[in-house]
Specification:
Elements lengths: L2 E5 L3 E3 L4 E8 L7 E7 L6 E7 L4 E3 L7 E6 L4 E6 L8 E8 L13 E2 L3 E6 L1
Parallel strand pairs: 2-11
Antiparallel strand pairs: 1-3, 3-8, 4-5, 4-9, 5-6, 7-8, 9-10, 9-11
Length: 123
Amino acid sequence: QVKLMESGGDAVQSGGSLRLTCAVSPHRYMRYCWGWYRQVAGKEREGVALISVGGTTRYGDAVQGRFTISQEPDKNAIYLQMNNLKPEDTGVYYCSTAGPGICDLRETEWLDWGQGTQVTVSA
């Protein structure tokens, strides 16, 4: 079983930056797609970014050009660099993993989820 632990969430002002980390344990074996999602209470979960084991990335329209997803396999970690943050980026951010198959923000069948980390952006 794969466990995911997010960290790096914080309260920042509009225009600020944060880097979120998703720590994977005990290993990445049989996981081929890695994603970041966010959710605000009362709203549907929104796909933010994903990266495949081969390095292909995809981003949600709302974060394109501002967020960057990356991976560091040797450290069993996935990162989300968030720049030029806006109040609408506020939410709980979750990382997720999937096995072989479609690696897509809308269609992937995610196998594992972390507990989430809170990001709050004030105007």
